[in-house]
Amino acid sequence: xNLILLGPPGxxxxxxxxxxxxRLGIPQISTGDMLRAAVKAGNALGQRVKGIMEGGExxxxxxxxxxxxxxxxxxxxxxxxxxxGFPRTVGQAQELGKILEEEGGQIDHVLSIxxxxxxxxxxxxxxxxxxxxxxxxxxxxxPPRRPGRCDQCDGELYQRADDxxxxxxxxxxxxxxxxxxLITYYGKxxxxxxxxxxxxxxxxxxxxxxxIGNGKxxx
Length: 219
Ligand code: ADP
Ligand code: ZN
Description:
CATH class: Alpha Beta
Strand order of the largest sheet: 2-3-1-4-8
Number of helices: 9
Structural class: alpha/beta
Shape: globular
Number of strands: 8
CATH topology: Rossmann fold
Bound molecules: adenosine-5'-diphosphate, zinc ion
CATH superfamily: P-loop containing nucleotide triphosphate hydrolases
Order of helices and strands: EHEHHHEHEHEEEHHEH
CATH architecture: 3-Layer(aba) Sandwich
Number of domains: 1
Distance between the termini: 7 Å
């Protein structure tokens, strides 16, 4: 099964993707995570994209398409994958369609997680991520038991470089302009499912599960 999680920054795509990995046994492919790993490693790719990401702009299509191809060709993705943060432009979606078509594959569902814009700034500006296990929490709505420490693994919590108010507003603007058109794009292909994203993680996961069926990979 191939799934796309669509939605603005802060909609909870990454959180739901991790739940889906457990349920379906197929990997999450997050271009954002891959790009952040490159920035952290300080390699050529990381140096190229660091400033773009810190400004809240999109990395060029050819760069993320190459990342996707490389990751999707690994053996653990043979039964499918959960795309989180890719595609993000109509160009990326078209290229993804071509790549899948060449292999006789398809997108089964596009899950668009809808959250009102006014909630997103609050969600993102209070968000903290664990350096060790990437678990996320929120300083106000789901504070960690020990300040600055991850509840899951006791790792150090940090604030993403692009989770400051100015960059958040730019990311939301870029989303509206470049990514939101994908709702229409996939709506036409009749694989778009709209998921209200304002409830609890559990409630949203239930909605997603019912939409995709109890679907085991390949089934
Ligand atoms: P969020 O959804 O919270 O904005 P991501 O981790 O998905 O966070 O992405 C962080 C940043 O990485 C984006 O703002 C962008 O600069 C870059 N990025 C991630 N995925 C893509 C993509 N598919 N196309 C272009 N840029 C991307
Ligand atoms: Zn952790």
